[in-house]
Amino acid sequence: MEKQQTAFTLGSVTFPKTAILAPMAGVADRAYRLLCRSFGAAGTVSEMVSVKGLCYGDKGSGELCTITEPERPMGIQLFGSEPEFMARAAALVQQYAPDWIDINMGCPVHKVVATGAGSALMRDIPLAQEIVRAAVRESSVPVTVKFRLGWEETSRNAVPFAKAMEEAGAAAITVHGRTKAQLYSGKADWNAIREVKQAVHIPVIGNGDVQTAADCLAMYAQTGCDLVMAGRGTYGNPFLFREINCAMQGKTAAPPSLEERMETML
After folding, report:
1. How many Cβ atoms are within 10 Å of 209's Cβ, its own excluded?
2. pLDDT tens figures, 29-87
3. Does residue 126 sit in helix, strand or coil?
4. Helix, strand, coil % (nearest 5) of the chain?
5. How many angstroms separate the CA atoms of 80 and 145, rounded?
6. Rounded to whole angstroms, how far apart are CA atoms 54 and 159?
7. 152 contacts: CB under 8 Å, gap ≥ 6
8. CB proximity list for 79: less than 8 A, separation 6 or greater
9. E strand or H helix at 182, and its extent?
């Protein structure tokens, strides 16, 4: 096999320049992560974990943090709006030995945003910075941040937000090319991801509308991002990672047979 080009190194992990599986609450559970890894996902991230749930000893939150070796490299994604809870949670998750910690500042769901977490943090850059600094202070592994283009079309602030996250100590950032108001509708703005990439010195992971291997190649070319993250494009199609891995080496993957689809589904 040809030597895979590397995207970047994050702590103890060096990613191949292919694609990583997005953290998706209620979707990307352990079974899903293992399935995507088996087809060549460059890494995985946990479903988002409440920092308060962790701090208050919620059993479910602890279960979400558990990592098995085949899922690695794997990050644990935390969400919360208070620096002190983020700090305590970052310290607590060290026992699960994540390869990195990701902070969710992009979730647009009402019940998350209503607590001041997720994409609500894009409206309060100083607080978002405090949260990142708190996590970095307590973590022995790199801290990354995932966010969107802004709250809505009239308040896009991905570039200043990205710079602020870099300044606060984030080791890398992931940008989903939509605003909070868009939810998952419309088209992801890859040009905005390119603007973020050009504005910061830390690695940028691009996310949004990667449905095919050709999309992945196009995202790398259009945005200059360091790594691609695939989310909804993997629904019913974990084979996407195999196709991406082949495409990045200039090859074409054989489409899955009906037998392989059935076997994977079972």
Report:
1. 22
2. 999 999 999 999 999 999 999 999 999 999 999 999 999 999 999 999 999 999 999 99
3. helix
4. 45, 20, 40
5. 12
6. 31
7. 179, 180, 181
8. 48, 49, 50, 51, 103, 104, 107, 112, 117, 118
9. none
* 1 part of a folded domain: no
CATH of the domain at 138: 3.20.20.70
Pairing of strands 143-147, 100-105: parallel
Asked whether residue 133 is domain-assigned, the answer is yes
Under DSSP, the state recorded for 195 is: H
Structure tokens at 75: 């990050």
Is residue 224 assigned to a domain? yes
pLDDT surpasses 80 at 112: yes
In the set 107, 216, 225, 246, the catalytic residue is 107
Provide the β-strand partners of residue 227: 205
Both tokens of 102, joined, read 């990701």
Angle at 228 between CA 235 and CA 182, to 5 degrees: 65
- Whole-number CA gyration radius for the chain: 17
CA distance 128 to 162: 11
Q: Which domain holds residue 120?
A: 6-265
Could you read off the pLDDT of 131-175 as tens digits, one per residue?
Answer: 999 999 999 999 999 999 999 999 999 999 999 999 999 999 999
Mean pLDDT in residue range 180-187:
93
Answer yes or no: is pLDDT of 1 > 50. Answer: no
How many domains does the chain contain in total? 1
Contact (CB, 8 A) for 260 and 242: no
> Are the C-beta atoms of 219 and 228 separated by less than 8 Å?
yes
Tokens of 127: 């607080």
For the question of residue 65 being annotated catalytic, the response is: no
Say if 152 falls within a structural domain: yes
Structure token pair of residue 206: 């691009």
Tell me the two tokens of residue 204.
């940028």
